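Re: that backbone. Tokens:
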């Protein structure tokens, strides 16, 4: 039996379906590597802070963390428009190659200055991965709604979970440098697969590019200005939460009296909750809509962040951290799903890159805020109250996204 299109009903999948599967799987793997690379600094910081040869304090460590995030911001803002103008495939291959090579070089850093420069340079490639990957999976799986984005982003947190697990085992047995070597090695397999299996995207012709102009201008025309400002503000707050917690949660928990092993286990728990939250958020957003889901998720994030200020015994602290992870991290991912469905396809990567890139200012502020609170001796419990307030501001900001423009299809 054949279908109207001529394919066998029981035969192999058509090439487009197979291509869609490769896009989802390879994009997921790229985002997992990004998650590993961006979280690894939080895992190695307790060791670096106690290494007398480096002479780091929380303030200097915050500057290094922020240097990497500045690179991520610049990369996201620059690569998003390039992706819409010149195609998805080549940008994905280039970004993964660049950040993996520079991550490997981080293992050879001889001091804080070189290390900070390499983190900045790696961030340029890391910043481009997310807008390219989200644009690709949304175009390959248009019928999946918000779940396409949230499923993709489980890769980030799987990478983060692996970072925490490996940190517990690798750092005591080898050194913090081994964590960067491990983070770079998967590219030896992934980059050839990207080159072989990702479909060639169809970038606009030179004539079409000239007619459209700069993709960034489309974000502030035709009723999109209000939405863009709202998304940028929400992403600022959402990424402040993500990077502030991933960078400083182990050290904050050590300030609260937990041993290093327990503090790293809580970081692991936070990111396990993030993966669970993404799986849940995707299904919920498909049922109730991404806008409503964002509002619910930021509200719950504020509640559980405030609860972390209470020092609970035994399993209680792990449960609270798990639930905070469920809502804090997936809140920002649902924002990306909202962005992806709010703008037309021809500027989708640009819109995602702008939200991610401008939001990285919040990611830069997150480690700085945490470092300042630690230096002042206020990180526990006041840091969690500060993070809860950030979630409330994000909740308010997203309500200003315009509902007068038609969602993208």
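Recovered sequence:
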């Amino acid at each position: 039996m054949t279908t109207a299109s001529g394919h066998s009903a029981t035969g192999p999948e058509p090439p487009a379906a197979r291509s869609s599967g490769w896009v989802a799987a390879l994009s997921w793997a790229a985002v997992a590597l990004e998650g590993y690379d961006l979280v690894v600094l939080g895992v190695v910081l307790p060791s670096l802070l106690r290494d007398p040869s480096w002479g780091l304090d929380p303030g200097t460590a915050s500057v290094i963390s922020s240097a990497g995030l500045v690179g991520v911001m610049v990369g996201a803002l620059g690569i998003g428009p390039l992706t819409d103008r010149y195609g998805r495939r080549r940008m994905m291959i280039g970004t993964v190659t660049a950040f993996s090579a520079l991550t490997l070089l981080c293992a050879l850093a001889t001091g804080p200055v070189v290390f900070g420069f390499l983190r900045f340079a790696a961030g340029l490639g890391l910043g481009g991965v997310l807008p390219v990957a989200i644009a690709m999976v949304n175009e390959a799986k248009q019928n999946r709604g918000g779940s396409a984005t949230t499923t993709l982003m489980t890769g980030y947190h799987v990478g983060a979970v692996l970072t925490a697990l490996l940190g517990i085992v690798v750092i005591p047995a080898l050194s913090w440098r081994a964590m960067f070597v491990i983070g770079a090695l998967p590219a030896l397999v992934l980059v050839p697969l990207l080159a072989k299996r990702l479909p060639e995207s169809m970038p606009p012709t030179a004539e079409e590019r000239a007619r459209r102009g700069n993709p960034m201008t489309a974000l502030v025309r035709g009723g999109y200005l209000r939405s863009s400002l709202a998304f940028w503000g929400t992403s600022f707050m959402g990424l402040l939460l993500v990077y502030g917690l991933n960078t400083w949660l182990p050290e904050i928990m050590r300030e609260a009296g937990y041993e290093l092993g327990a503090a790293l286990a809580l970081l692991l728990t936070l990111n396990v909750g993030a993966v669970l939250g993404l799986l849940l958020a995707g299904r919920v957003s498909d049922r109730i809509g991404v806008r409503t889901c964002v509002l619910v998720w930021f509200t719950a994030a504020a509640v559980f962040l405030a609860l972390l200020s209470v020092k609970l015994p035994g399993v209680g602290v792990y449960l609270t951290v798990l639930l905070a992870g469920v809502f804090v991290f997936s809140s920002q991912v649902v924002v990306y799903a909202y962005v992806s469905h709010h703008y037309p396809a021809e500027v989708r990567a640009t819109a995602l890159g702008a939200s991610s890139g401008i939001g990285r200012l919040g990611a830069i502020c997150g480690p700085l805020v945490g470092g300042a609170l630690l230096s002042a001796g206020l990180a526990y419990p006041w840091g969690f109250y500060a993070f809860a307030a950030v979630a409330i501001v994000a909740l308010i900001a997203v309500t200003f996204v315009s509902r007068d423009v038609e969602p993208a299809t």
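The mean pLDDT is 79. The two ends are 32 Å apart (CA to CA).
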